[in-house]
Amino acid sequence: MHHLDYYPLLLIFAIAWGVPLILSWLEIGKIPSVIVEIILGVMIGPFVLDWVGETPYMEFLANTGFLFLIFLVGLEIDVNKIISSLSAFHFKLKSILSNTFMLAMGIYLGTLALSFPALWLIGRFHDINVVFYALLFPTVGISITVPILKSSGEIKRKFGQILLMQGSIANLLSILLISIYSGYVKNGLDFDLLLFNFIFIAFLVFHAIGKKLNRLRTFQKVIYRLEHAANQIKVRGAVALFFAFVVIATVVETEPILGAFFAGLLLSLFITKDRSALLFKLDGMGYGFFIPIFFINVGINLDVSSLYQIGESYGFILLLVAGFFVTQTIPALSLVRLFGLKKAISGGSLLSARLGETVAGAQIGLALGVLDESENAAIVTASIITCLLAPMVYNLMNRKDEEHKKVIILGGSRASLLLAERFKLHNISFTTYLQRDEIIQQFDGKSLPYQVVKPLSTHFLASLKIYSGDLVIVLTESNLLNQQLTAFLKNELKHSKIITRKQSVTHDLVDNNFEGIKTVDHEELMAGHIEDIVLRPNAIDSLSTSFDVYRIEEITISNKAINRKLVKEVAFPPTGSLVIQKRGGEVFIPHGNTHLLLGDQLTVIGTGAALAEFRNILEGR
Fold first, then answer.
1. CA distance 294 to 62
2. How far is CA 609 from CA 513, 559, 578, 603, in A?
3. Which of helix, strand or coil describes residue 580?
4. Which sequence ranges are marked TM in the entry (predicted)?
5. Beta bridge pairs of residue 596
6. Pairing mode of beta strands 601-606, 576-583
7. Whose C-alpha in 147, 419, 465, 534 is 20 to 30 A from the C-alpha of 443?
8. Beta strands 565-566 and 595-596: pairing type?
9. Reduced to 3 states, what is the DSSP secondary structure of residue 130?
10. Helix (H, G, I), strand (E, B), or coil: what is residue 510?
11. Are strands 471-474 and 407-410 parallel, antiparallel or unpaired?
12. Residue range 117-142, pLDDT digits in tens
């Protein structure tokens, strides 16, 4: 058997295992572990300590890790969601502002357009390949943005979804354009440049085959039987698909990353991301083995001394960092109308983080010869700096106490009181505008936020600063006032995110075709409830009684005092219970010996008082 030196792998995985462990132990959550891995790779590499050098098998594993990272990026994109959003799209400003995909696409195109003048300016000081840099500039560090959006609670909101979509689009199109440019550099303007289209053909063929196989019950039974234990048939199939597309890309002489990306994109069409055990296993394979090798190997091969080959190399790095932030933040200002200036700047700053995809693109440029060693080192260094600065700017500009209102309730009815109670229970940011003294006393008694407005009129709405992203709920007791306020919001303020009360069949409040406005028909709801009481009396009585007493809520652990404690060590309220615990992509049922970690999301059930106590314990209020 040919002798293989496993020492480099031992050293690499000692780093890969120790870095996140130490960062978590020291509670240094704001520094991404991959940054430390790259830096330690530089330290053990041939240009510093010279503990590890280049070997063929290490190069193979690192390249596979790079391709697997791109494969997982493709898996993150929800193609079905993009298609469904486009089907309802109209070329109007309101439609663009309400369409997550179009907003994200606009930010990407803005970044791409700004990259050329920014790089032309940089090119006045340093000799660079402007075209390749312009294709590389819009890439977004998804591995940085996703954890930060999760920790800030924005991941499921529209703001977070726009940032995620923009990052996915930027990486998709950057990979595609870099692959085409790579083919141009290798083969010039000839027929071979069009061979990358075979990737699209393969995508359509494999998709058709996959749909047919999914309809075969015999195939599904075999897959289910072989899914677990020693066979792991789904994992093997996913890896086979990954390598199939990489091989196809290699055969048609285009970049293998394009094949890896489309393999992930194809697989994402056939799995349910929130519940798929396959996705957890592929993440484990990628981030547990292949991807750490890639990042640490980037550091090992990074010739830090080559930075001095560029005159004033530190100035070049700072220009790159400034370019990343400027070209990303300016297009993100399109979010001002939806979320306000500070939130738009925070989003643009977070998208300025560059890491895995940018570093990977730089490796392609290095292999093509359009970048030299010093430029590659400068790009990696600049990417690391953005990963340190971007989260800091995001947290500074996205402070919760400075956010504008998420929900505006106009009204003084009992319905607005009940709705305010539920919003408070779920920690939804809202303000209710009231004009009746009787209802004001009830709001005071329950410590609900409100402002007194006398009278509640269209003139008041004109003075109220309402963002396009704000949800306005019209719940006054006057049918005529509901009509007037909603018509003013729709026609004068051009606001479309409205929920309003429709009290009779003659109520001609809103054009049913007007996008974004939803009506609640009081009489229809009453008729449906009476129908349920008549046809399903026992079920309705049970649900009504239970809802008054017990409620369900999701709470994220942010109290450092209970971090790493066992469930049985914490005095939770006896009138409530822990139901589900989520940690990263893993979902499980907590028991006495389950550890509680910062960032875990707990689903709890209990009375109103119990839920308040749960929040005190888990959030440290």
1. 4
2. 43, 19, 15, 16
3. strand
4. 6-26, 31-48, 60-79, 100-122, 128-149, 161-181, 193-213, 233-251, 284-302, 314-339, 351-371, 377-397
5. 565
6. antiparallel
7. 465
8. antiparallel
9. helix
10. coil
11. parallel
12. 988 888 888 888 888 888 888 888 77
Tell me the pLDDT band of 243, cut-offs 50, 70 and 90: very high
| Token duo for residue 251 | 């055969």
Residue 505 has a pLDDT of 43
Q: How many CB atoms lie within 10 A of CB 445?
A: 8
Q: Are 337 and 162 within 8 A, CB to CB?
A: no
User: Which position has the token pair 């597309």?
Assistant: 245
* CA neighbor of 47 nearest in space, from 332, 316, 300: 300
Number of helices (H), then strands (E), in the chain: 27, 12
Beta-carbon-side half-sphere exposure of residue 68 (alpha carbons within 13 Å):
25
Q: At how many degrees (to 10) do helices 233-251 and 56-76 cross?
A: 110
Q: What pLDDT score was predicted for residue 454?
A: 78
Find out whether 144 and 163 touch, Cβ atoms under 8 Å. no
By CB neighbour count within 10 A (0-12 exposed, 13-18 middle, 19+ buried), where does 156 fall? exposed
Lowest mean pLDDT among 58-67, 273-282, 415-424, 512-521: 512-521
- The count of other CB atoms within 10 Å of the CB of residue 277 is 14
Q: pTM for this structure?
A: 0.59
Residue labelled with tokens 């994220």: 556
With a CB cutoff of 8 Å and minimum separation 6, the contacts of 178 are 132, 135, 136, 255, 257, 361, 364
CB 137 within 8 A of CB 171: no
The length of the chain is 621
Closest to 41 measured CA to CA, from 219, 239, 274, 291:
291
Q: How many whole angstroms separate alpha carbon 266 and alpha carbon 39? A: 34
C-alpha torsion 588→590→593→595, nearest 10: 80
Strand-pairing partners, residue 431, are 408
Locate 434 and state its tokens.
């009231």
pLDDT in tens, 168-209: 778 778 877 877 777 777 666 665 556 667 878 888 888 888
- C-alpha 375/C-alpha 378 separation (Å) is 5
Instruction: Please list, in sequence order, all residues whose beta carbon lies within 8 angstroms of the beta carbon of residue 75, skipping any fewer than 6 positions away.
Output: 264, 265, 267, 268, 273, 279, 282
How many CB atoms are located within 10 Å of the residue 227 CB? 14
Distance CA 46, CA 595 (A): 41
Q: Please answer whether residues 316 and 378 qualify as being in contact, where contact means their C-beta atoms are separated by less than 8 angstroms.
A: yes
Helix (H, G, I), strand (E, B) or coil at 576: strand
CA 346 to chain centre: 14
DSSP state of 308: G
In 446-521, where does DSSP find H-type helix? 458-463, 479-487
Cβ(178)–Cβ(361) under 8 Å? yes
- Angle between helices 414-425 and 437-445 in degrees, nearest 10: 20
